[in-house]
Design goal:
alpha+beta, globular
Length: about 230
């Protein structure tokens, strides 16, 4: 649901004051000093994060890499069967300067965040992910969900496979962008589906597919400082 449709519905219900304000994200860069080859070479799963926050500029870049618009006709950074785009990206933010802790839905066309919850859910997300408590260290956790019906409506049962291919492509985009920014991330697939869906406040038609905790990798120097 786009922000404009949401606004119209709330106005019709007499809830105009309840319309959440969008968080406009910084414009993403289209070039960097890190090559694709370098990012591929450096990419490793990261499950230990320092206490450094993830800046809003970096979060903006990562979200653009996941599902950002790259053409006037709405085409995105990750390929999608039939250009149907079944994926939705949610942000669980804890330590992002300039962004209140809470949960947000990424709106690719607006390159903005729509607030969905005002509570830091990282501990709850980690608990629902079979108690992978290391995830709480991550300043940001991305959640990728999918509305299978957008794709299966055209491709029938085969569309399920196409959605799964697409989530892998988007997740790899995130991992490579994270490396180019000097950050760390990993893909998490172990979690209680219904509990995660409830925590993220997903619509009935959307299903959670993967989580991607993001942060600054914990270095040996960081470990020594924390032990002092």
């Amino acid at each position: 649901m786009t922000c404009s449709i949401l606004t119209v519905l709330l106005l019709a219900l007499g809830c105009a004051d309840s319309v959440p304000a969008l968080v406009r994200l910084p414009e993403p860069a289209r070039a960097s000093a890190c090559s694709v080859e370098e990012a591929l070479q450096r990419r490793r799963s990261c499950r230990s994060f320092s206490k450094q926050p993830v800046h809003l500029e970096h979060l903006s870049q990562i979200l653009w890499a996941a599902q950002g618009i790259t053409r006037a006709d709405g085409r995105r950074t990750a390929p999608s069967a039939g250009a149907l785009y079944p994926l939705e990206i949610y942000v669980v933010a804890g330590e992002v300067p300039g962004l209140p802790s809470g949960s947000y839905r990424y709106l690719p066309r607006e390159h903005a965040l729509l607030p969905t919850a005002s509570t830091d859910l990282r501990a709850d997300i980690a608990a629902a992910a079979v108690h992978q408590d290391w995830m709480v260290q991550a300043p940001v956790i991305l959640a990728v969900a999918a509305d299978y019906g957008r794709t299966t409506g055209k491709y029938k049962e085969r569309g399920v496979r196409y959605v799964h291919i697409e989530v892998g492509l988007a997740a790899q985009n995130v991992c490579l962008q994270v490396e180019a920014l000097g950050l760390g991330a990993t893909i998490v697939g172990a979690f209680q589906d219904q509990e995660m869906k409830t925590l993220l406040g997903l619509p009935e038609e959307e299903e959670p597919l993967t989580l991607i905790p993001v942060g600054h990798p914990l270095t040996e120097e960081d470990r020594e400082i924390e032990q002092d």
